[in-house]
Records
---
Amino acid sequence: MELVSDISLIRGEEELFDRTAHLFVAATDIACAADDLYTWALSRPSLTRQGERLVRDKRIRKLYRPGVLLNEQTAEHLHHLSGLGAQIRIGTEEINETILLDERVAIMAGDEGKAVRSYSVISRPELVQGILSLFETAWLASTTLETFDARFADIRMEAPQILEFLTTGCKDEKAAKSLGMGVRTYQRRVSELLVALGVTSRLQVDARARELGLL
């Protein structure tokens, strides 16, 4: 893709990767921040042998929210990428969904609430450096995949049942008893699950869990 200006607006993932695919192939340093694996098509849990070779040949850093670890398939995919040499970290704070290529080009995802999501491709050096600085700050504040996942194993096993209790309006006391734990422990698990889902209240759980394919 030859940029005719410092900032280009692209609508839809298909057009984005049709017009920037060669940038990904040429890049040797790729940094990616996303809420989940489905923001960027190239991050989805399927890798060809050619894709695996490209991962090994590049410096790749991926930063995700905890929700990616609630789904066993996506968690396995991340560990597979890590085994190929990609650096993967998990952060609990809100992040700007961004891809940085060789610290020269930034791709920023627009509002996902739109029917067709837009993406900004930015090559203006001072803007790219500002976006890179935000990514580096979030990266340093995050936790390695292995460390985060080690303490996340319990909640991943319990998540399907807790989600069912939350979406059906089950009382905490009854839900805790069903899981064989105290009410306070159950409520702590719920709080951890809300963080993982990236929501702030139980009322948001159903919609977000469906977005992530957990329900």
---
Amino acid sequence: MSEVLIGSILSALSTGLGALPILFLQGSITHRWRDILLAFTAGIMMTAAMLGLIPESLKYGGIVEVSIGLFLGVLILTTLEKAIPHIDLEHSKSGIKFDEKALLIIAAITLHNIPEGLSVGVSYASTISDTGNLIAFAIGLQNAPEGFLVALFLINQSISKWKAFIIATATGAVEIVASLLGFYLTSFIEFLVPYGLAFAAGAMLFIIYKELIPESHGDGNERNATYSFIIGILFMVILINSF
């Protein structure tokens, strides 16, 4: 219990850690670096899903459980996306007023963090050594640049640096609750473990392909984003092999 709590808290607080540089930033970063950060986090999440969550789901269940879990993850994320319209942090040209737009961004990011928290909790519920720590670390790495981009968006909407930092940090707090929920469900209902792991993988894959990769290719930086994506994959492969 203490391990999953610590892992989920550290993973969630990585959002705030990523937003921290906002307090000292003079000016703004280029689209190129934003795209590089997004692509790097996509590579990290891709590897965590394909080499961490899915293989472990197969160990607990089979192809049927993995398929059902994956499709459920994609279905839930699709439903959430329809309930909370996606607004591109950098490329939006909508006429939504500030208060409504900021609320949508915060709500979308918060909901987006729920499956990430679930993946951490489910991974800690498995009996395979260090999987929980690995997934928590991977999600934490993904959360850091996300927190930075959310805080940067809020500052561009004339919110103070400190308030933007606090809001960005708070969006990650939902991961703690989701992580504990995933942990308890799969701990007490053991047959849910393969479904839960595959569900988390499906949700992450949806986020990667639907959100992170398209956004990292939105400003003509496709080649740099591709290199960064591959570096993110290699980084996680090295990390997985070191556990």
---
Amino acid sequence: MADLPPMPSTPSPQQPVPADPSAGGTEAVSAAPTTDVRPRTTVAPRRLVLWVVVLAALVILVDQVTKIWAVAELEGRETIELLGEWLHLTFIRNEGAALGIGSGYTWILTIVVTVVIVFIVRSMRKIGSRGWAVALGLLLGGALGNLIDRIFREPGFAQGHVVDFIGYGDLFIGNVADIAVVAAAVMIAILSVQGIGIDGQRHVDQEQDQEQAKDDADEEGGAAERTTDAPEPGAPTKTSPSAGPQGSGAPGTAATSGPTAGTES
């Protein structure tokens, strides 16, 4: 008898093996390759950083130009009313912060503003929201606008007085940089209430999703326990013998849910 040629050793492609439902398996394993679906970002972080830088530069430009105009046109003049007593132009040189707070401690305010600016710049690396980009741009521009005054204006380095000329009734007198800072504070408060972090993620929704996932897991666990405890279809039901007459030792009959065969005599 002639020798048969050797069979090829190339293994056949493996077919998907369906899972065994009785073993607690899931659906059949698919042989199709799976793709990694990742969330798509609508705006690149570099673009958002550019928004912050450009907006801050615009705030600084408008702030410094209006201050130069105020020094040239308003210094030494009386108050100019724009909307009666509610809005007016009054030139002052402020050595403190808003509302005159911190007068006499200009150098301390300079350090505080510098720390705030460093914090803003470091936070720009995490930015992932257009709203936060606008807020940080306004805040950075306003802080730098007033810091320029404290560094370069009289009476000296880090002790310069900020030029203020926009009066709001009898409340306080500010400038364009102050307007930007207030607008940024309002935007940050709104974003915080909405639960939007600086990275653009809505943390309130994440917490709700985690709670919903936990509730779903609890419900699935309870359903699995009920399925395990339920008898299989067609399986005989267990009946407990009832107690027979006392002292007779005769086994009792199985409890039935239907009508009795007879009545007692």
---
Amino acid sequence: MVVTTEGLPDWLGPVVRAAETVEPHQLSRFLPPESGHGRQSAVLVLFGEGDRGPELLLMERAGTLRSHAGQPSFPGGALDPEDGDPATTGPLRAALREAEEETGLDPAGVQTFGVLPKLYIPVSSFVVTPVLGWWRTPSPVGAVDPAETARVFTVPVADLTDPANRATAVHPRGHAGPAFTVEGALVWGFTAGVIDRILHFAGWERPWDRTKEVPLDWHA
């Protein structure tokens, strides 16, 4: 597994620089426990270029799943033993493997160009490594297993930075965080938090109304 920035499009430069300098606490207040507790996992933050310019690949989890049902997310999941060392290349292999299993994309067309600091999802005890990828050679994608994935879609970065599509999601338990209303979906939680920080530290963020609230469904 190789992480390289060679040959990337110029517009990804700010993301590369952000990944090289950002500190864990700048991405989230939820960081892996010092005890080492947590299930190692990885997600693929895949940038491509579509008809409307730069875009991100997302998927929507099936509504019948026991956890995070119906929630948009990055492709990804837990590390398997064959993925290797969680401290080195394990997350890279896991992110690409899970993305292939969930969306059908061809990993050979993906160039990994960065890795963000490990983050933590308390509700599921996942220690998540966001792996940054450039979709150098796009391949067809779609929901491989409808029991797990409702749909796979891309979102233009222009829509993610549009203030009209931004809001603060309020969980029934009182938690609040950034959200995006794009492609007929409400992106919130861990995924929205990572996108929000990437937009911010890449200098792509536009001023938006943080008082605009979007309530989550009772089962969210």
